[in-house]
Design goal:
Organism: Aromia moschata
Shape: globular
InterPro entries: Mitochondrial_GEF_domain (IPR053035), RCC1/BLIP-II (IPR009091), Reg_chr_condens (IPR000408)
GO biological process, one term: positive regulation of mitochondrial translation
Strand order of the largest sheet: 2-1-29-28
Pfam families: RCC1 (PF00415), RCC1_2 (PF13540)
Number of helices: 3
Structural class: mainly beta
Distance between the termini: 62 Å
Helix content: under 10%
GO cellular component, one term: mitochondrial inner membrane
Radius of gyration: 27 Å
Length: 422
């Protein structure tokens, strides 16, 4: 028993000595300790942004080569999770857009090379590029410059870029530039029969429409739209499903004003991914046209969208639309509230709300006020970035390496511009 007690006493003494610790020979002066310098880690520049991409690698739209060295062509794969692309580290990317198998980035530059494109280029939708004379490249795996004929390259700025199936529209402070396929007049110029778009180096510039400044643009699958400074909407291109809203089903090679119910409204935003157009006025009220042959803007059967409250963001996909209210998010034909908890709003984050939505052809994405990205829909080409190729039937958060500022959806790939965490 005495041995047992001796062991316990030794353990107790050692514990006390360990807890109390050994006193310093030269105690630290608390006042001097406060004066010691604190190392300040560097933070990112205010204008620095990271660019992430995911989805189908085979088209080159991600700006990442599909094949590695000594890798078989049979191992082409999808990028199932967001990957930081090197192009965003070399240039200050301001905005971007996703077309059908190609991507375009707008960068901060004092030259004519203010936009860069990669991906499918069968119709010169991302400019004319060749390695050998008269041998245009139909597939580009790394972003290449697309020179635009600016009048003042040093002062001009790219405000927005948007893309359709095989054409591109660029909004600048000098007007809009259109390039690519013009088979239906979607570039806002006359249709030339049997035009060889793969060898075309022509860029159409439209300074104003009816003498009015252009403030916004949007592309559908094969048609284009523009909003002028007074809130009027103009459209051109393919009108077989009424998506131009001009009261007929013919192709229109020039920007023509859309009338009907929106004629008396001041439109501030348009959204379209395929052949269904959603318009938002300055009062936060939506209007829609196209999508079916009975909903052309001039048609007697045309009806306004169901009143659901004031709207701050809209998005239109191939056969669906999503809108964000001031306090709520609604979707589907008859607005049905998506639970806010699915977008990260809870007791720990009561102020986390959806601030912006956007749509691909068959999927949708939402960006919250905390910089989180939620996505759902058909997962073609792993375009959802959730680490799987399965479809997602409700909003799910995407793991991103930064605060999401903007997201751009295509048909089978997605691009996000993020602000670093630090």
């Amino acid at each position: 028993m005495s041995t047992y007690r001796r062991v316990l006493n030794e353990i107790s003494a050692n514990s006390k000595r360990f807890i109390s610790g050994k006193r310093r020979k030269y105690p630290i002066n608390s006042e001097d300790a406060e004066k010691l310098p604190v190392f300040q880690y560097t933070v990112s520049k205010k204008e620095y942004r990271r660019v992430f991409a995911w989805g189908n690698l085979q088209t080159g739209a991600l700006g990442i080569p599909a094949l590695k060295r000594n890798e078989s062509i049979d191992k082409l794969y999808y990028l199932q999770s967001p990957k930081r692309i090197g192009f965003g580290e070399k240039f200050e990317v301001r905005t971007a857009c996703c077309g059908f198998g190609f991507s375009v980035f707008a960068v901060n530059s004092n030259t004519n090379d203010k936009i860069y494109g990669c991906g499918i280029n069968t119709d010169s939708q991302i400019g004319y590029h060749e390695v050998r004379q008269h041998k245009p490249l139909g597939l580009i795996f790394y972003p290449q410059p697309i020179p635009l004929p600016f009048l003042s390259p040093e002062k001009s700025r790219v405000l927005k870029i948007t893309a359709g199936r095989a054409h591109l529209v660029v909004l600048t402070d000098e007007g809009i530039f259109t390039l690519g396929n013009n088979a239906y007049g979607q570039c806002g110029r006359s249709i030339i029969p049997d035009e060889d778009y793969s060898r075309s180096n022509y860029i159409n510039r439209i300074e104003t429409i009816d003498g009015k400044k252009i403030v916004d643009i949007e592309c559908g699958q094969d048609h284009s739209m523009a909003v002028t400074e007074d809130g009027c909407v103009y459209s051109c291109g393919w009108g077989a499903d009424g998506q131009t809203g001009l009261g007929h089903f013919r192709n229109t090679p020039e920007f023509t004003r859309v009338k009907g119910d929106i004629e008396s409204e001041k439109i501030v935003r348009l959204s379209c991914r395929s052949d269904f157009v959603l318009a938002l006025n300055n009062k936060g009220e939506p209007d829609n046209f196209a999508g079916s042959c009975s909903t052309v803007a001039h048609s007697e059967t045309h009806k306004n969208a169901t009143p659901i409250g004031k709207i701050k963001s809209i998005a239109s996909g191939g056969s669906f639309c999503v809108v964000v209210l001031v306090l709520k998010l609604n979707n589907r034909r008859r607005p049905i509230l998506i639970p806010e908890t699915l977008f990260g709003r809870n007791d720990f984050q009561p102020n986390n709300i959806v601030r912006k939505v956007t749509c691909g052809l068959n999927y949708a994405a939402a960006v919250t006020s905390l910089g989180d990205l939620f996505i759902w829909g058909r997962n073609k080409g792993a375009c959802l970035g959730l680490g799987t190729e399965k479809d997602q039937y409700f909003p799910l958060k995407v793991a991103m390496g930064g605060h999401v500022q903007d997201v751009f959806c295509g048909i089978d790939h997605t691009i996000a511009i993020c602000k670093p965490f630090i």
